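User: My advisor asked me to double-check a structure prediction for Diacylglycerol O-acyltransferase before group meeting. I don't want to rely on an old file, so could you generate it fresh from this sequence?
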Amino acid sequence: MGTELLAPLDLAFWHLESDAHPMHLGALAVFSPDEGRTPGPDALLELLGTRAAAIPRLRMRVRDVLLPVGGAAWSVDKDFDVHRHVMRVEPPGARVADEAAFMAAATGLAGELMEQPLRRGLPPWQMYVIGGAADGPFAVLVKLHHALADGMRAVAIGAGIFDEIASLAGRGRAGAPAVRARTVPPRSWMPGPRQVAGLALGRIEDLGRAFGVGASLVRAGRLDLRGATALSASSSGTRRLATADLDLDAVQRIRRAAGGTSNDVLLAVVAGALRRWMLERGEPLPGADPRALVPVSRRRPGGSAATGNRLSAYLLGLPVSEPDPWERLRAVRGAMDRNKSAGPLRGAGAVAVLADQLPSLAHRFGAPLAGSAARMLFDVLVTSVPLPRSALSLGGCPLRALYPMAPLARGQSLAVALTTYGGKVQVGLVADGKALPDLERLGRCAEDEVAELLALLPVP
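Assistant: Sure, here is a fresh prediction for Diacylglycerol O-acyltransferase from the sequence you gave:
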């Protein structure tokens, strides 16, 4: 069986994890009954297990290696059993047929399941069928360790469970025979003679870039963390999930009127939602605007998805102190234009560039310190995850919504993830359960912010 060394950033995510700060990302996919019927919970569980087992990457586990010192590698789990990873859970108030009641129960349960770290020694992922009773909606919660996948890679892996992608891969729908999973071929980490010169030049360039990022980090680090009190609290190890649905047409109308990108609009919506939420809960606005870390994929279009995490990020001040929604949007657009002009490999947000330059032993022993330092750099993670544009289904039941979920860094209470599907921008909010018990209110504030921006559009 071949092995594949964890890339430096994957290794960093692997060692950043603790019981109170599990480093898995996730998604809650909600499905509507097919013509008022679902295949039934047992059939859904079997279908999901068959398709997950046929995804080669999901058979890989992490194991330590002798060289490089402190390193780890992916290897095929010889004792792989999909039933350890795919389970069914019933939400409180079992057999809830009403969609609103089901969503409330499913998100509450998903928050509890997201608290639990993935078991080490096994392939680091889990899937849960939530509900699935006849004539009612059901959901699938997917948990993938961040060492296994970044956002785009998670989409590529998770897409294999849907009818459309499974059919294209020859796995078919319910009742189709299981296909023996192929092992992942080894990826050599020893360069050949022709690569040495190029690697040396690339190494010098990478070290110079890392030095610049390190200097930016020192300048951007904050020792006084009293600003964003609503977003910082002692970790309780608990998780709470809330969702919001924003009208995509409204977001695009705002973008056409204001210029910039839809992502600029959504970042401004997050800033406005935070301002509304703080004011509604009677909390004073912070003296300094909170900072968002905005991940940026470094994957090339059409490139291979076989490698590990390929991420950088921008730092963005969220203008919660600005009372005017359109001024907030202008401020966000200007800041993001400056970030894009500098590029994703410069500035304090490009912390992943540093991770790529550190030896394996530094990741193993320096991860706790690095995790604690995240609070000095940013207050909230805001990430966008792309989805296929085509309609998706599972067992013939159409996908109604998919809410992505991001992990929480140490010292932080909130992560915001967004994706677009079915004419909606779907927002997944993950928070420390004790620090932000009113997380649902923040979701409503995001919806209110879009409505106000839309109402303020100039009349043609």
